[in-house]
Amino acid sequence: MNFLAHLFLSGDNQEILVGNMLEDYVVGRIEHPRNSHFSENIKKGILLHRLIDSFTDTHLLISASKSVLYDKYHKYASVVIDIFFDHFLARHWELYSTEPFDVFRKRVHQAFIDHWHLLPDKMRPVIESMIKYDWLKNYAEFWGIERALTGVAKRAVFESNMEQAVNDLQAHYVFFDENFKIFFPQLVQQCTSFLQENHFSHNSIVIQ
What we know:
0% strand; 12 helices
C-alpha cells in the first residue's frame, strides 16, 4: 500500500500514524538500540506498517493485479498497484470512512508537523511536498496518479517506465477497482484487529 492507505489504516493516534510512515526509514529489528529513541506508540506504528506490507504482498488478489502489469513493469508492478489502490481509496473514501476527506488530510498534516523532530532528514522533503501539494487529495485524479508515478519513476534505480502506468489504470479500470473493493475490507479488518489488540482506536473506519 502507498501513502494514503497506510495513513488511513493508522487510526486516530498521531504517533501510530507517524510511526507507520517512518517504517521506510527504519532498518532491522524495532527493538534494536538504534531505535531506542522512538516511543512505544511510534514502534507500534512501525509494526503496523510491516503488517500491512506483509498482508498485501502475500494476498492472491494483489498477485492477480500485478500479473496484468508484470510484463511491462516487472518488479515495479507492486509499486504501481500500491499507487493505483490509493487512487481507489481516494475515489471511494466515503465507503470506508465517516471522517470527511478534508478533515482527514488536515489531521494527517498536523500529525507530521507536531512530530517534525522525529522525521529523518531524507523524509522531511517528502512530507513537505506531500503537505504543500496535497498529494492525498490528488490521488483521486488521473493526473495526480500520473504525477505520483512519475515521481516514483525518477527515484527508481532502474528505468521502470512507471510514468506510463496511468494508461494501464484507465485500460483495466474496472478490473483493478473490483480487486480493490474485495481486498481492502480484508486489510481493514487486519489493521483494526491490530489497533484493538494494542488498545488504539479508529473511530471513523467503516467495517464492511
